[in-house]
């Protein structure tokens, strides 16, 4: 019997080969035999409104007026945001906006400077 790697998702030892794929019968996860170390779920790419790839520490500009729940004013188009941090979730940018405070933004409403 071949020495197949454990499932990268659930760590099951009952993986089997099906052609060029390895398959876990417990969680139904499939992956290529040569890519066990690269998990595609960990390597998410975040893009701005124009399709540019964003990374931690980038500066961005807001592309449309955004209403903010619980705030008396909206974030205006053209507001510059420095030193963003990418996170998981629907609002995938954490940042601190001068004069407004800590905020979570969606990447589709910003463009890279």
From TrEMBL:
Q: Where is the Protein YjdM N-terminal domain?
A: 4-32
Domain (Protein YjdM C-terminal): residue spans on this chain = 46-112
In terms of superkingdom, the source organism counts as: Bacteria
Q: Name one Pfam family in it.
A: YjdM
- Gene3D superfamilies annotated for this entry? 2.20.25.10, SH3 Domains
SUPFAM superfamilies (UniProt xref): Prokaryotic SH3-related domain, Zinc beta-ribbon
Which protein family is it in?
A: Belongs to the YjdM family.
> What protein does this entry describe?
Protein YjdM
The organism's taxonomic lineage, starting at the top: Bacteria, Bacillati, Bacillota, Clostridia, Eubacteriales
């Amino acid at each position: 019997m071949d020495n197949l790697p454990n499932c990268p998702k659930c760590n099951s030892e009952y993986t089997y080969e099906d052609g060029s794929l390895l398959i876990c019968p417990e969680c139904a996860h499939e992956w290529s035999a040569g890519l066990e170390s690269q998990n595609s779920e960990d390597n998410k790419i975040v893009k701005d409104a124009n399709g540019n790839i964003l990374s931690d520490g980038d500066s961005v500009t807001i592309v449309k007026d955004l209403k903010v729940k619980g705030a008396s004013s909206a974030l205006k188009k053209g507001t510059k945001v420095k030193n963003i941090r990418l996170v998981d979730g629907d609002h995938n940018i954490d940042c601190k906006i001068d004069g407004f405070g800590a905020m979570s933004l969606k990447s589709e409403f910003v463009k890279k400077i």
